[in-house]
Amino acid sequence: MKVRVGVGLGVRTWLNGPEFGEVVDTIEELRFDSLWVSERITGEAPDPVVAMAYAAGRTSRLKFGMAVMVLPGRNPVVLAKEMATLSVMSGGRLLPAFGLGAADGREHEAFGVTRGERAGWFDEAMTVMRKCWSGEPVVHQGVRFHYDGLQVKPVPRRLDVWLGGFAPSELRRVGRLADGWLPSFVTPADAEAGRAVIEQTAADHGRSIDDDHYGVLIPYTLGSVPDAVLAGLAKRRPDLDDPADLIPVGWDAVRAAIKRFVDVGTTKFVIVSMKEPASVDAWQTHLTVAAAEVLPLET
Questions:
Q1: What SS3 state is found at 149?
Q2: Residue spans per domain, the chain
Q3: In the CATH scheme, what is the code of domain 1-61+164-299?
Q4: CA 192, 62, 272 angle in degrees (round to 5)?
Q5: Do residues 174 and 165 lie in contact, with contact meaning Cβ atoms separated by under 8 Å?
Q6: 15-42 pLDDT per residue, tens
Q7: Do the Cβ atoms of 181 and 164 come closer than 8 Å?
Q8: Is the pTM of this model over 0.85?
Q9: Distance (Å, rounded) from C-alpha 123 to C-alpha 142?
Q10: pLDDT tens digits, residue range 277-288?
């Protein structure tokens, strides 16, 4: 199995200015596999399309993706054009990942989609984008979108779409629509059980997902997990005896978590610091240590 480790920036990242490029350079130089940027219209994180284009122009081998980009509310044809262009210009290094968006009223207002509309919008928009990337004229008569012979160019060689989530409806959506799965705040047992649901759903729809397209986003900390975070995890995952198990503390725990996920067939990893370094120099030092600790686990 081809195990790979990338770096993720959370929705609260302060890297939204020129410093972003310096950290991207370090991630490339240390030979991490990928960089993942988050989206939150109302937060500090930079716009993912702009950030990925900026990163692509500074690098030559680093892959990049969104963890994740909100799809409901966006024009799927315009977004398909942006993704296709970025993929072709970067030599196929784009790893697009989409989600429904945060359960936040202000976020819903920003995208102009009510919470109840999100799932239907997502499914139809994803179908439209797939058609746009095929290179063939798009014929689509849906609930929200209507096209008759529209073509989008350039045509990307291949765009593998990654989706997250662990709820039953989200797992089934991965099986129906995605090429890869990248959940967060899950255990190895969750990953194993979720994969079974995804594979069954994919088979039910005449599809399959490559064995090396199952990943996980691992939030970690080098100190204690804040009480507020633990309270949020307890609310999010009331089924777990100890929600703190979802956040490895220290590099030994991060490595152990990766190994446990590998044992259940997970091969793609995105590590995300719960407490970002406060300066570029601190980021570079942190990443240098991280590379020495986790990149030897790649195969």
A1: strand
A2: 1-61+164-299, 69-161
A3: 3.20.20.30
A4: 50
A5: yes
A6: 999 999 999 999 999 999 999 999 999 8
A7: yes
A8: yes
A9: 11
A10: 999 999 999 999
